[in-house]
Amino acid sequence: GRGAATRCRTISRVIDAVTALARVVRRGPDPDCRLTLAAFPHAEPDDMASKRSPWQRTPTCGQLTAQYDAYEPVAGTHIKGGLTLGENIGDLGGLEMAYAAYRRHVDQHGEPARIDGYTGDQRFFLAFGQTWRSKLREGAMRQRLLSDPHSPPEQRVNGVVRNFDPWYRAFDIK
Known about the structure:
The protein is mainly alpha-helical. It has helices at residues 2-26, 61-69, 81-109, 120-130, 138-147, 153-161, 165-170. Helix 1 (2-26) packs across helix 3 and helix 2 crosses helix 3 (81-109). The longest helix is centred in the middle third of the chain and has 29 residues, at 81-109. The two termini are 30 Å apart.
């Protein structure tokens, strides 16, 4: 209903603000070019090497660079993973911090009710995706891919959540 749409827009604005702040805090890689456990408090140290998810095995800068290098938003033009690496790390850290804040709220106030069939966690990730909605003409996208240190909006969502286990759990993806 209309109330659900308004709540989703409000959640989207809050997530946008929190992730923007968190991205500034978490922007750069470590000197050894690995994401640190300190940056990702939900990661379990004992599970880091054993689980299938890049999130839980602490992706290296090389792994993130290769992941984003493989994206081809415009036919014949790939993202330059090395150019966008700092921002991609910041996006992942921003999502982690926003999700941690959301889960702290849930821990204090209880799980939210389903709305329109979506759980609270599902609505969190849908709102995260909505923060990056945009449209670009092909020429503008191609130019950005050649020089912008930010990944295109679609990959700022899809590239990040594939490295974040709570997203898989929220949508029951195996």
